[in-house]
Each structure stands twice: as structure tokens, then as C-alpha cells.
Design goal:
CATH topology of the largest domain in chain A: Phosphoribosyl-aminoimidazole Synthetase, Chain A, domain 2
Radius of gyration of chain A: 19 Å
CATH architecture of the largest domain in chain A: Alpha-Beta Complex
Distance between the termini of chain A: 7 Å
Largest interface: A-B, 70 and 70 residues
Oligomer: homodimer
Chain lengths: ~300, ~300
């Protein structure tokens, strides 16, 4: 973690262009284009046994999720691919085709390389989206805003735990781990009203902490309010430990937004049917994340979520 | 090679958007923006012992070279980075800073991940450039055009051979391998006149073959005309074997252009001082590359250059 933080601080010092948004965001802005790049590695972001189709689907979803979090609509992607064996590569192309079709997004180009034999594969995707009228960053949250979430938490982390116990497991939690969904329509509904927005990729607590730090506010987060799926509750229960697991698991790709008072109705009108918008806390003066469980203070967990250890 | 060709054929079938240029190019075009993505891997595109600064310089140069080959001017990059140890990461940031400053190019964003312990690192870079009035592709070459080159051939491959024999070696060939240069100004001078253009990354013969295939023409290439550096000749000599080595080595990042008759003077007027524009052959009716050595036919070498073996 220290290594990553130091490295990113070094990069931030380089990223002085306005388009880089001070590196406090997952995207860059060039005119009305929103650009983002994500990388996933075998054995880190997906399991060696995951089907190639689902690896392609996950790569597309996690990258487009950064566009969703800015209210942008995907235009196209550039793929960085490491060749594997022919069957895997073919299946990956099939999964890529399906995923891009789902988001009405074009493959524009990329690069293909071979790795030394036996090396874990690393896949990169750059996504370009068209910005809406407003592109919320992480830094615009204000004390008094509500903290809202669209999507459920913990499903992916629960699915990973299931797979680690039984590599042949299947079901909705495994699907949540293997095939997250980028919430493009939901992001478009939130962006015009959100004072700050991001996707939850490394875990709610760590990502909310980043929004709070960028916005120079504190946050009160209510564990009892976190939206959990029926599949999650069936697998992990619904007690405080389960909710802390959901708050720190990561790989969720839910959308986290700071919404000023009085904007909820507008957002609800624009959300696609079936989308659940849930208030999980509020932005307050101060700094850091204060956790509570329906009012009772909760000690923050030792690890707030997923950080990359070198 | 078969694996890569099949994989790329599968991707081409997906890349139906006009911006993808039919996948017959190293870049995508969105409005007046030119986008490209390159990946390099430890032990494949650079040596584990190469200094981190030079790995950053090479990553930037090989990616921006694709913009140069379209006559575009770099605007910014997104970095996909795999954390290593702190010292290497710090040195990489220093090299990245210097390389981006050299090209007046901004760091706009990216992603940082950790790899499993001991995995060879994979680095990705997406570059965005501003297109000039004309963005030559690979497919516009016509029989009767001259085949021209800016830059020398073989230096990088010769430098790699030197390093493989002695990891502590230094000198201009090693520098050519470790720190190629993207010929931005040269590309801007060529692009308005070129009927087809690309950079030489996998070796002259293979890349010229790609231009010939995309343009549906043949090419006659004169080995005797290939521009070699003094350092290259001092190391490898100047006979036919040396020239075949230079024609197939790859990692050159010279610019290869098809120029219609009568355009040479205009190009020379725009080239930066010191740039050498050399005619190495011509485009002819037919297909494939016909090699000759000052008129005498030469058998094509067994391997035309660098292709990725899965």
C-alpha cells in the first residue's frame, strides 16, 4: 500500500494538465470526451479458472464503470491484450463481442503482445466516453449532502470467497464477481445532480474515504442502510460482520454519489426502472469516515478495503 | 504467430466502427483526436536489467511513435502500471517525467495494479494526439509512389544483441534499444504528402509487407539503400547479412512513407534539420515485397521480422 500511495503521489506531481483533474479522479477529460484506463491481472483481479468470456466481460465492465461514474456514455475502447492459447483467445473475443454489444460500444484498436511462458496475463482497456452536460468529480461533495448508493455491496467479494472454497461453484454471487455491470444509465441519471460521484471498486469504506478526502469533508455512514442482495444475505447473513464485509469487500461497481438536499426526486425520475437508490449516510464537516449501525457507533475495520500491495 | 493473426482477425471482425479504421492501422480516429494503445512486457520488449528510467522512456516513445506515423501531435497519455519495488517505481516516475517533458505531453490518468510476486511486469500506455489536416493510413499507397524512410534501421536490434552478450554494455546501439525516439516533427512533415505511412516497429520487411497488403500493391525494396548508422556499421558491418539483419530487426521506430512522385521537395522543406529522408524502394502493381541489392534480386529472409509467438 505504501508503495502504491508513494507511486501515485509521484504521478500526481506529473499530472498537472487540467484534463487530468489533478489525478483525483478515475478519468481524464478532453473536450467533451471522458477517458479512462484500467488494467486487470490474472490471479489478482480474476481467477486463473475464470472463463475467458467472463474475463472479457469483467474487463469491459470495470473500465466502463469509470465512465458510468462520470455520467458519460461509452463510445469505444482500445484493448491491450496478452496472447494465451488459441482456445482461450477465441473465447475472450466472443466475450468481448458480447460485452461491447451490451454497452453499444465499439472496439477502436489496441495492442497485442505475447508474455514469457507461464507469466500471469495482464489485460488493459482504455475507454472513451461522451460526457453529459455535467461531469461530477470526487471533490465537489459538501457538508449537508446526502451520501447515496445505486447497486448492492458485497456480492462480488462473497462470490470470490465462494469460488476460493469451491472453484466449480456457480450462482448469482459468482456471477457478480465474474460479470459485474457498469451502471451507465444509472450514472447518467445521477450525474446532473451529484456534487461528487465515483464507482465503488476497492470497497465502500476506502472509496468513500477518497471522496471525503477529495471533497475535504467527513462522512457518516450507516452500516444498517447498506443495500445487500438476497443472495448475499443467504450466503453471509445480515449481521454486523456481514455488513462490514460488504462495506470493505470491493469489486462492487455500485455508484456512490453525494446528492445535495432536494435533488433526490429529480434523480429518481431519471433512474432506469428497477434501479435502487439508497441513502447510506451524509457528508459532514470534518474529515474521515464515521461508521455507525443505525445510530450506534462502530469501530472502523482494520482494513477499509482493497489496496494494492506490491 | 498463427495465434496472433487469428486473434487479430477475430478482433477485426468486432472493430466495425469507422473510427477503428478497419483495424488496419495502429491508431483510432475520434474527431480530430488520434488514439493509440501500446503494451510492453519485461523480458519481451525490454530486458529485466534495463534501467527503470529507460523503460519509461521506451514505453513513451514506442507509443508516441504511432502518433508520429499519423502526423499527430501528442496531447496526453494514460498509464497502466504494475507496481514493482519502491526504488524501481520512483526511478520509473523520473523517467516518465523526463520523457513526457521531451514530447510536451501531459500525464492525464491511468491505473496502477500489483502483480503476483515474481511475475514479469506489463506496462501499458494510451496516447492521445491532435491530428493534422491529413492522417495517412496504411492503405492509401499506390503503384508508382516512392517508398521512403526517415530514421535508421537495425540499431535497436544490434543494441539488444550487444546487451544479450554483455548486460553491462553501453553506447549508441544500447541507447537505440533502450531509448528510441518518436519522430513527431518528422511525421508532421511527411503526413501531408504521404499516401500511406506507418512506423517500423516489428521490422522493415514485415511492416512494409503490411503496408503493401493494406494498400493492395507490391513493393520493391533495395537493401543497398537502407539507411544504417555509423554505430551499426561499426558493430555489424555493411554487407548483405548486416543489411538483412537491419531490415528484419525491428524496434526501429523509423517512419516508412509512400510518397507520390513530385512530393519529395515539399517534404524536405518541412523536415526538421538533420532528419534524413531516404528512398528505399517503390510501390508497384502486384503483391508482396521483392527484395533486391542495388538491382540484384535477393531471396527474402526466412523470418521477415518480429511477430509475437504465443
Amino acid at each position: 500500500m505504501t508503495g502504491e500511495l508513494e507511486f501515485i503521489a509521484g504521478l500526481r506531481a506529473l499530472a498537472t494538465a487540467g484534463a487530468a483533474r489533478g489525478f483525483d479522479d478515475d478519468v481524464a477529460l478532453l473536450g467533451d470526451l471522458v477517458l479512462t484506463h484500467d488494467m486487470i491481472a490474472e490471479g489478482v483481479h480474476y481467477l486463473p479458472g475464470d472463463p475467458a468470456e467472463s474475463v472479457a466481460a469483467k474487463l469491459v465492465a470495470v473500465t466502463l464503470s469509470d465512465l458510468a461514474a462520470k455520467g458519460a456514455v461509452p463510445i469505444g475502447v482500445l484493448l491491450g491484450y496478452c496472447l494465451c492459447d488459441g482456445a482461450w483467445d477465441r473465447a475472450f473475443v466472443g466475450g468481448l463481442r458480447a460485452a461491447l454489444a451490451e454497452y453499444d460500444c465499439a472496439l477502436l484498436g489496441g495492442d497485442t503482445i505475447a508474455l514469457p511462458h507461464g507469466a500471469p496475463r495482464v489485460l488493459g482497456l482504455t475507454a472513451i466516453g461522451r460526457a453529459g452536460a455535467r461531469v461530477p468529480d470526487r471533490a465537489g461533495g459538501r457538508a449537508g449532502d446526502g451520501l447515496w448508493l445505486v447497486g448492492t455491496l458485497g456480492d462480488s467479494a462473497a462470490g470470490l470467497a465462494v469460488l476460493l472454497a469451491d472453484a466449480t461453484a456457480s450462482g448469482p454471487l459468482v456471477e457478480a464477481y465474474r460479470r459485474p455491470r457498469a451502471m451507465i444509465a444509472e450514472g447518467r441519471a445521477l450525474a446532473p445532480q451529484a456534487s461528487a460521484m465515483m464507482d465503488v471498486s476497492d470497497g465502500l469504506l476506502i472509496d468513500a474515504g477518497r471522496m471525503a478526502a477529495a471533497s475535504k469533508v467527513g462522512m457518516a455512514v450507516d452500516l444498517a442502510a447498506l443495500p445487500l442482495s438476497a443472495a448475499f444475505i443467504a450466503q453471509r447473513g445480515n449481521d454486523r460482520a456481514a455488513r462490514l464485509f460488504a462495506a470493505t469487500g470491493g469489486d462492487d461497481y455500485a455508484l456512490l454519489a453525494a446528492l445535495p438536499p432536494g435533488t433526490e426526486a429529480m434523480v429518481r425520475k431519471s433512474l432506469p426502472s428497477g434501479a435502487q437508490l439508497v441513502r447510506i449516510g451524509e457528508l459532514v464537516a470534518g474529515a474521515g469516515i464515521a461508521l455507525h449501525d443505525a445510530g450506534a457507533p462502530v469501530e472502523p475495520p482494520e482494513s477499509p478495503g482493497y489496496e494494492h500491495h506490491a
